[in-house]
Amino acid sequence: MVVMKGNLRDMGIADLIQHNCQDRKTAQVSIEHSGQQAVLFFMDGNVVHAGLGDEAGEEVIYEILKWEDGTFETENIIAPPANSIRKSWSNLLLEGARRIDEKAGQTPTPAPPKNAEVNPMATNLDSILKDMSVEINGYMASIVSGMDGINIAEHSKGGKVDTEAICAQMTMLFKLVDTATVKVAEAQGQAISVEDNLLNTEGAYVLMRYLPGRQYYVGVIVDRKAGNLGNLRLISRVYGDRLAKAIPG
Amino acid sequence: MPSKLDQTHQDFRTEIGPDFFASMIIGMDGLSISDNSAIDAGFFDTEGASRMAMIAKLADKVSGKLGIGKMEDDIVTIDLAYLILRNIGDGSYFWMLAVPRTATLGTVRMLMKEYAPKLWDAIPR
């Protein structure tokens, strides 16, 4: 039974993969693009099989990640018919993004490390933000800040962005979001915590995400035309752990 | 008989299916004009509405200050839910929706985009 239909312009392949994996769906997603039909199978939080014509496996994922238009249908299934993919979904998306960058002639996104959450190359905050910048599509700027609005690290594409102003505005909003939602929940006798806040505007996506420990957050601004919400949330989560580990004390 | 606004609200709930906690249309004065809820959640009472209005206003202001265009929506991720605030019409009202974390966010946003003009049309003016 078809449970969801949609257009790739509204929900891209990377988002489809992320959502089905994060929701741990056992599902089949059929995708149509310019007369080509691809099919993805999900189980236990991963994409386990992909097919496109006679091809199957990881290479199909890398190929279809380039598709920007087309339609998709999601169906719940009992079990996938085959198991042609061993790589985790996050590594598949990172490798796909790297190949797309490479083909476009941009500075290639570094190949995903074997353990995607720990890259021993960068240990200080600024260099981690720099590493993160090449993995986020449409990246404009990022900061790491305490809730006092003073940034402890910053990075911007071309260095032309006023990161201090961005930091001040982001902190003001994130603090209000946190205080307002927590207070409302407390008034009802509930305890909740805010994980992140994503502001979407005509021109940009602005993500504020608490780092583990919740004393600091990472803020990222992405160009709306070139950016991708799924990619932004995924990469900021992966790098959030690295940033937290690199904060002294 | 439900008002056109309440009926449009209900139509949205029907379309979104089980991925629905609650929804409310709130004026920028912090007062709710329509709500539809599947749960008993504090976000959707008078205090919740006014606090969320503060967030919607500030988010709009921050977008302007950063020069990144008008706010389209703001998504707050909390433990078990996404809270989505979306401006509707000329910006004098916004729509607050709560969905479970298991909801497919892309689909929810797509449906909100589709229903925002319908809700705006249904608001008596």
**Based on the structure given, which CATH architecture of chain B is correct?**
2-Layer Sandwich
- Over all CA atoms, what is the radius of gyration of chain B? 14 Å
Number of strands of chain A: 11
Mean of pLDDT of chain B? 90
Number of domains of chain B: 1
Q: How do the strands line up in the largest sheet of chain A?
A: 1-6-2-3-4-5
Order of secondary-structure elements of chain B: HEEHEEEH
Task: Provide tags for this entry.
heterodimer, A: 249 residues, alpha+beta, Beta-Lactamase, 2 domains, five-stranded antiparallel β-sheet, B: 125 residues, 42% helix
Write a structural description.
- The complex is a heterodimer of chains A (249) and B (125).
- Chain A is an alpha+beta fold and 249 residues long.
- Chain A has two domains: 2-91, no CATH class; 122-246, Dynein light chain 2a, cytoplasmic (Beta-Lactamase).
- Chain A is 34% helix and 29% strand.
- Chain A has six helices and eleven strands.
- Chain A has helices spanning 13-22, 58-64, 89-103, 125-133, 163-187, 229-246, and strands at residues 2-7, 27-33, 36-43, 46-52, 55-56, 71-76, 139-146, 151-156, 194-201, 204-210, 216-223.
- In chain A, the strands form two sheets. In chain A, strands 1-6-2-3-4-5 form a six-stranded antiparallel sheet. Chain A has a five-stranded antiparallel sheet with strand order 8-7-11-10-9, with helices on both faces.
- In chain A, helix 1 crosses helix 6 (229-246), helix 2 crosses helix 3 (89-103) and helix 4 (125-133) packs antiparallel against helix 6 (229-246).
- In chain A, 43% of the residues are buried.
- Chain B is 42% helix and 29% strand.
- Chain B has three helices and five strands.
- Chain B has helices spanning 4-16, 46-66, 105-122; strands spanning 22-27, 32-37, 71-78, 81-88, 93-100.
- The longest helix of chain B has 21 residues, at 46-66.
- The radius of gyration of chain B is 14 Å and the shape is globular.
- Strand 9 (194-201) of chain A pairs antiparallel with strand 3 (71-78) of chain B.
